[in-house]
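Q: Fold this one first, please.
A: Sequence and structure below.
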Amino acid sequence: MAKKQRYYVVWEGLKTGIFDDWKKCEAQIKGYQGARYKAFDSLDEAQIAFKAGPFMGTNTAKRMSHKKKLDNILKDSIAVDAACEGNPGILEYQGVDPHSGAKLFHQGPFDEGTVNIGEFLAIVHAIALLQNQGRVHTAIYSDSVTGMSWVKNKRIKTNLVRNKKNEPLFILVDRALRWLNTNHYSNPVLKWETEDWGENPADFGRK
């Protein structure tokens, strides 16, 4: 497994700044009386901490970094995600406000499903909810390329075989497909860029 990239802030040393390698950082502080430095998990956190000074705690830098990332997210939006224990397995999905973290809806658990089906249902649930509320321009964020594709094409492509155990889930799928094919919506469905913004706020935190 590749070693996780860390960033080192030097506030007091031979040279000050942000370094992406420990040896480079060490060269600035070794033998320097009163050296001040700290390691951070992301470049955003390091940049914020460097500007703020050596008395900013790591947790504060993390919070400020997270807020900076959320500045890129549309104010009027919903984030959706699904979690599945196994494939297939016990499935649930939800939608949250990405800025406040408030839960807007939750469905499940379903006895047998797949994460792709959950991601698809979460997006359609969000669209239908927003339409009912008259929020026709509110954006929906999902980190599922497959789920977004199924919504766009108004059909699903799954290897999950329909049976008595998962019938309640497939009834929801039927309803979602019927809704997509009989309704018009203008809500943009956008990709949540995990690499740049961090974990999807609707993630269930089970990774």
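Q: Good. Now the second chain.
A: Here it is, same layout.
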Amino acid sequence: MTISGYEIDRLRQLPLFNGMPLDHLSDLLGDALVRVHGKRRMVFEQGEPVTHFFVVLSGWVKLFRLRPDGTEVVMEIFGPGESFAEGAMHMTDGYPVTAEMIEDGRLLEVPTDAFSQRLRQDPDLALGMLASMASRLKGFVGRIEKIKSQSAAQRVADFLLKFSPLPEAGSPMVVVQLPYDKQLIANRLGMKPETFSRALASLKKHGVNVDGVEARIQDLPALQRFTATD
């Protein structure tokens, strides 16, 4: 399956490929494949040899580890235009997590052997890899900071804001489509389902009403101020 021009443009926005000329990027990804994966399909499992890293073209992918009791701990969730597993490229003990499709989607699968050889030959590509790792680290640090400094309600509100569209002119109200199910959102935010439910209920006084997969935010700027409070 081929990759569209629109998706190529999205790839060029990734820190890993930022600013790369189109012909250079096309040559770099000459060995990559676009593959369709069904819902709940395992992309790779923890401990498997690292053979590819991935870019999400459509759908959602969760990365998780299993506790000894079998409980899933969601480490990260990636959506369209995001890459994952490139940091595992030189891990000799295999992928550190398991990756599973949350819904049907398309992944660009890049072989690590060929890509690793290009890294040794191309300083700009190596710098792009460093930029990608720095961006990922910044994201993890931000998540830890929010867990430590924000209440459960603020963290849920912050999640909704991440997916909120821009309000129409003259109206502070927006409708947010939840990207995946509530239990997975709770896991992603490091909460038990009951804590997540209480947080959603407490957001009603801040103008947030959730009905199924839709969250209606009555006053977007007010909710942004709420997440920023000490």
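Q: Anything worth noting on the second one?
A: The first helix runs from residue 5 to 11.
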